[in-house]
Specification:
The complex is a heterodimer of chains A (408) and B (383). By secondary structure, chain A is of the alpha/beta class. Chain A has two domains: 235 residues, Peroxisomal Thiolase, Chain A, domain 1; 152 residues, Peroxisomal Thiolase, Chain A, domain 1. Chain A is built from twelve helices and 15 strands. An eleven-stranded mixed sheet of chain A has the order 5-4-6-7-1-8-15-14-9-10-12, with helices on both faces. In chain A, strands 2-3 form a two-stranded antiparallel sheet. In chain A, strands 11-13 form a two-stranded antiparallel ribbon. In chain A, strand 14 and strand 15 form a beta hairpin. In chain A, helix 3 packs parallel to helix 5. Chain B is an alpha/beta fold. Chain B has 13 helices and 15 strands. In chain B, the strands form four sheets. A six-stranded mixed sheet of chain B has the order 2-1-6-5-3-4, sandwiched between helices. Chain B has a five-stranded mixed sheet with strand order 7-15-14-8-9, with helices on both faces. The chains are: A alpha/beta (408), B alpha/beta (383). At the A-B interface, helix 4, helix 5, strand 5, helix 6 and helix 7 of A face helix 5, helix 7, strand 4, helix 8 and helix 9 of B.
């Protein structure tokens, strides 16, 4: 198997505030629906940040009852969807690369509260020395019967793309023939307290619920959500051998770090632009060939402007012609799961030739002068889609998805 | 490999690691056997050090996990410069691995949320609670703007970081990669781990180890020198989706280990006779099912000097695989290996070990091996 082994997407799975399945998720995106509601999972203690995107369509059980973190439950749910058509007989070699921002935060909360000696410790079912991240991986692997190696990754809000980048490396270099790659996160109290104190979330105004307004002049912050997005990736040879029909090709990926500041990139978005350029180089695709960009677009003042500058640096004058969307207006910022869920949407966009709209966009911002898709889904002949993400701590990760067989 | 940055209970730097290998291999064992269970016997600690002598940025707060990793990264990059001289920052990257992340900060943050409420949570402290905080701080400190990845999972994640670093350099995605693992254990976590592993279980410790991996062209361009060559890193699954505890599980794990070793050797055009030493990134314990699973395979290497985590500062979770790589690199350089200690006698729970003279390393390569119930990572280093 050569280093340039082609890698195809052959399965998809999703669980989020817009739906517990891929069709529900996609339909909600096309309709421009918003998945936010008042958080009811824990006591908010009067916090002004009471709105979030909790997963619908599932009834997760708390870790304290099931011994399985909610995030892992979301991931397992999505993983089962992704491998629905993957033969049982091949699952022994199926590897898993799963990423998360806050990971098993529920389990960690319980461990810390109990001095790492919770009541279930004596059963030996969960081994502390293997680490709580591994527990989540175990759950997902058992749920789908995957016997290949398990890799956990955490690159904050770029986690999903980072997982796909690593899966791509494993497949290209022959370490695996099929990989379930994705990311998950769940809204839990301690994490919510932390996210609240960062003061990056939007607050409601004039009796209105808070909104995420990516790239809008009057944007005021993001709203965090939860969920899981999982993609089944296979080498071309592996897919052909079992007669799988590729949904898309994962043509390239990259990840880097701004090496600048913990909370924001440099004003010009240099490292963001470099990550995009490297992903395109990795895919063997020129910037002008990109048909659509799924932006990170969190709806925060600083990051949206920096991202827009990075796009201009990469695409130059052509940036006016390339349609751009941020899905976070309706999906929210699903933390580690964000770019994985958005990758699922990118694959569907490629297949159906439809770009979901950026919702809540009313007033253009000269700092974010992009060809935003708004008002409703846009039909387009899509061949190359770029999925961009950036995270706290400066991690960037980008994936390039194409119609199968297109990349050079 | 052009730089080694070990941080372990014997201290910081190559000299401390060499001490662990050559001078006092029985010191840790004396500390852990025969003592009543208590915090001082739970894990072996990295001794206090001045982080400011290793980093340029002054920060009001740094989690111990980040402190270990920053020191280790600084030591590893010392030969090539900080930031790496004559290298484009976007061609210099970072791959990190951790099992527990910034556990100490997370504990403090959670306690403050429980005690003071959500509205008084500290944003400064919260930023030190992410699993990727240490990775970010290292990128910022050392100006590493290139390829980046952060592995969180079982203790093999330190090996995965090295695999990712190796692959990034090999594939031309980076000229230099700082790759390794780190784990720092809070007091409460260390007591719980000790309880889980048992008083007579493996020596547990904490620490960090980072390796500077550079392409040959990059080293030549700046007139540098390599410590040794990291020839390949392979990984594989064992085929087990769940643990059943059956005997077949052990056979599968053993077969996966054998397969990974064979694949690693074939990728490097080496054969078993070229190996001069074996380094196991495992808490070796005779009764542990994972160790028993590997025994049939490892018996075929019984003629090789073998080093477990005990000999390299204790089992330091994500830092263990990189520490074993660093130890391998040191011994390959010297072409000598410490001989195993000989257990003379056991008196009232205290073991008396006797030193043996060092021996020449017979091969030109070393194998570093780590495994879990689900995955295997194997690396081959060459002088």
């Amino acid at each position: 198997m050569t280093d340039r082994t082609r890698v195809f997407v052959t399965g998809l799975g999703a669980a989020c505030c817009l739906g517990g399945s891929v069709p529900e998720f996609w339909q909600a995106l096309l309709e421009g629906r918003c998945g936010f509601r008042t958080i009811d999972r824990f006591e908010l203690e009067g916090s002004p940040y009471s709105t979030g995107g909790q997963v619908v369509g599932l009834s997760p059980t708390p870790f304290s009852e099931s011994g399985v973190s909610m995030g892992a439950q979301f991931a397992a749910h999505a993983a089962r969807q992704a491998v629905r058509d993957f033969p049982e007989g091949l699952r022994e070699g199926l590897a898993i690369v799963l990423a998360t921002n806050f990971g098993p935060s529920e389990a960690l909360e319980e461990l810390v509260d109990a001095d790492y000696a919770p009541p279930w410790a004596a059963t030996g079912r969960l081994r502390l020395h293997e680490g709580p991240f591994e527990w989540d991986l175990d759950q997902v692997a058992e749920a789908v019967g995957a016997g290949g190696e398990r890799v956990g990754i955490s690159l904050s809000c770029s986690s999903g793309n980072a997982a796909m980048a690593h899966a791509l490396a494993l497949l290209r270099s022959g370490h695996a023939g099929a990989v379930l790659a994705g990311a998950y996160d769940s809204i839990q109290k301690v994490v919510w307290a932390g996210l609240s104190c960062l003061r990056v979330m939007a607050l409601g105004t004039e009796g209105r619920q808070p909104r995420v307004r990516p790239f809008d002049l009057n944007r005021s912050g993001t709203i965090f959500s939860e969920g899981a997005g999982v993609l089944l990736l296979e080498s071309a040879e592996h897919a052909a051998r079992r007669g799988a029909v590729p949904l898309a090709e994962l043509a390239g990926a990259s990840s880097n770090n701004n090496a600048y500041h913990m909370t924001h990139a440099d004003q010009e978005g240099r490292a963001t632009a470099e990550a995009i350029q490297r992903a395109l180089q990795d895919a063997g695709i020129r910037p002008e060939a990109v048909s659509y960009v799924n932006a990170h677009g969190t709806g925060t003042k600083l990051n949206d402007a920096i991202e827009a500058r990075a796009f201009r640096a990469v695409f130059g004058e052509k940036v006016k012609d390339i349609p751009v969307t941020s899905l976070k207006g309706g999906l929210g910022h699903a933390m580690g799961a964000a770019s994985a869920l958005e990758a699922v949407a990118c694959v569907l966009a490629l297949r159906e030739g439809l770009i979901p709209p950026t919702i809540n966009y009313e007033t253009p911002d000269p700092e974010c002068s992009l060809n935003l898709v708004t008002g409703g889904p846009r039909q387009a002949d899509l061949r190359v889609v770029l999925n961009n993400s950036a995270g706290i701590g400066g991690g960037n990760a980008v994936t390039v998805l194409t119609k199968p067989g297109l990349a050079g | 490999m052009t730089g080694l940055g070990p941080v372990c209970p014997f201290g910081l730097g190559i000299e401390a690691l060499a001490t662990a290998l050559w001078d006092k291999p029985n010191r840790l064992r004396e500390l852990t056997i025969g003592k009543p269970e208590g915090p001082q016997a739970a894990v072996q600690r990295v001794p206090p050090f001045d982080l400011n002598s290793h980093v340029k940025a002054r920060r009001p707060y740094v989690d111990p996990h980040s402190a270990f990793a920053l020191a280790a990264g600084s030591l590893a990059l010392a030969p090539s410069g900080r930031p790496p001289q004559e290298l484009d920052p976007s061609a210099s990257g970072l791959a990190t691995g951790t099992v527990f992340g910034n556990a100490a900060s997370l504990e403090i943050f959670q306690q403050s949320v429980r005690g003071k409420g959500m509205r008084l949570a500290s944003p400064v402290l919260f930023q030190h609670c992410y699993p990727n905080t240490t990775n970010s701080l290292m990128s910022i400190e050392f100006g590493l703007r290139g390829f980046n990845q952060n592995f969180c999972g079982d203790p093999l994640c330190g090996g995965r970081a090295i695999q990712a670093g190796h692959e990034a350099v090999r594939a031309g995605m980076a000229d230099l990669m700082l790759a390794g693992g780190c784990d720092a254990l809070s007091e409460r976590l260390s007591i719980a781990l000790r309880r889980e592993c048992g008083r007579d279980g493996p020596i547990l410790s904490e620490g960090a180890c980072f390796l500077a991996l550079e392409s040959e062209q990059s080293v030549r361009r700046r007139g540098g020198k390599g410590v040794c060559e990291l020839v390949c890193v392979v990984s594989a699954g064992t085929g087990l989706a769940a643990r059943s505890g059956r005997a077949e599980d052990q056979m599968r794990i053993g077969a996966a280990i054998r397969s990974a070793i064979t694949r690693a050797l074939s990728q490097t055009n080496l054969w078993e006779g070229d190996l001069g030493a074996l380094f196991l990134a495992m808490p070796w314990s005779r009764n542990d099912p994972l160790c028993q699973a590997a025994k049939p395979t490892l018996d075929s290497f019984s003629q090789l000097p073998t080093f477990t985590a005990d000999e390299v500062g204790g089992y330091a979770f994500a830092a263990t695989f990189p520490l074993q790589c660093a130890a391998a690199a040191l011994l390959l350089n010297q072409r000598m290996v410490p001989s195993p200690m000989k257990l003379e006698k056991v008196e009232r729970g205290v073991e008396l070990w006797v030193e043996q003279p060092p021996a020449s390393m017979l091969g030109t390569a070393a194998l570093v091996l780590g495994w879990s119930a689900h995955s295997v990572v194997a690396a081959i280093l060459k002088a």
